[in-house]
Write a structure and sequence with these properties.
Helix content: 10-25%
CATH class of the largest domain: Mainly Beta
Number of domains: 3
CATH architecture of the largest domain: Beta Barrel
Structural class: alpha+beta
Number of strands: 12
Shape: globular
Number of helices: 5
Order of helices and strands: EEEEEHEEEHEEEHEHH
C-alpha cells in the first residue's frame, strides 16, 4: 500500500529483455537507504518488487500484462519516473490509499499554467469516470491528486508548486500517457452499491431512499 506522496524522482538506467519479460534497472538515491530484496516500490504508480539492490540503484521485473496495461510498455532508458516506498504501519498517513494496481492509462490532452498552479486535462475511458468524483482523490503516475473537474471521459487536476517540483508531472505534454488509479474506497463502495441493487432487483424490491439508507449509502 502506498500514499501517492512521491519520495523521489528516479531514472530508468537500463532495460533488460529476458525470458519474455522485462527487467528494469532504476537509479535513485533516497529510497535505497533501507531497501532490500522483496520490497514493494511504486514506479509511476505501479507496484513492483525489488529483485536486487545496490547503493544507488535497484532492479525490478515487469510482467507482460503490466507492459500492456501501463505506460511502462513505452518506457525508454533515461526516462524519469516517480518513486515511492510502501507504507509502514508506523508512518504518518498523507495523500490517500494507493494500491499500485493501475485501472487504465489516460492521455494528457491539455496543460496550462494559472498563476502558481499547473493544470492537466486527462482523457480516460468512460468506464473509468464512474469511479472519479469532483474533489475526490486520484493517482496519476503514482501521485496523489485532487480532482477539480470530471465529465464523461475527462478529468482535470491542478498541481501545487511542491507537487510540480517533486514529481515528473510537470514535464508532461499533450499526447503523453499516464497511469491512472482511481480511489480504491470509491471502487469498493460502487461495487457494493451495485451488488445491493442487483440483490434487491432479484428480490423484486423497489429501490427507495429507505432501502439506500438501510444499506448505508445515505
Amino acid at each position: 500500500m502506498f500514499t501517492g506522496l512521491i519520495e523521489e524522482i528516479g531514472r530508468i538506467q537500463n532495460i533488460i529483455h529476458e525470458k519474455g519479460a522485462v527487467r528494469l534497472v532504476l537509479s535513485c538515491h533516497k529510497i535505497t537507504e533501507d531497501m532490500k530484496v522483496g520490497d514493494s516500490i511504486s514506479v509511476n504508480g505501479i507496484c513492483l518488487t525489488v529483485t536486487n539492490t545496490k547503493k544507488d540503484c535497484f532492479w525490478a521485473d515487469v510482467m507482460p500484462e503490466t507492459l500492456r496495461k501501463t505506460n511502462l510498455g513505452r518506457i525508454r532508458i533515461n526516462t524519469n519516473v516517480n518513486l515511492e516506498r510502501a507504507l509502514k504501519l508506523t508512518d504518518r498517513f498523507g495523500g490517500h490509499f494507493v494500491s499500485g494496481h493501475i485501472d487504465c492509462t489516460g492521455t494528457v490532452t491539455e496543460k496550462w499554467i494559472e498563476d502558481n498552479a499547473v493544470w492537466l486535462a486527462v482523457t480516460v475511458p468512460q468506464s473509468i469516470t464512474g469511479y472519479i468524483v469532483s474533489k475526490g482523490s486520484i493517482a496519476v503516475d503514482g501521485t496523489s491528486l485532487t480532482v477539480a473537474y470530471v465529465d464523461e471521459n475527462c478529468f482535470k487536476v491542478s498541481l501545487t508548486p511542491l507537487t510540480a517540483q517533486l514529481t515528473t508531472l510537470t514535464s508532461l505534454k499533450a499526447g503523453d500517457l499516464v497511469n491512472i488509479e482511481c480511489d480504491i474506497i470509491g471502487k469498493y463502495i460502487k461495487k457494493q452499491y451495485f451488488r445491493s441493487v442487483e440483490t434487491e432487483k432479484n428480490n423484486d424490491h423497489e429501490i427507495t431512499l429507505d432501502l439506500l439508507e438501510e444499506n448505508g449509502f445515505i
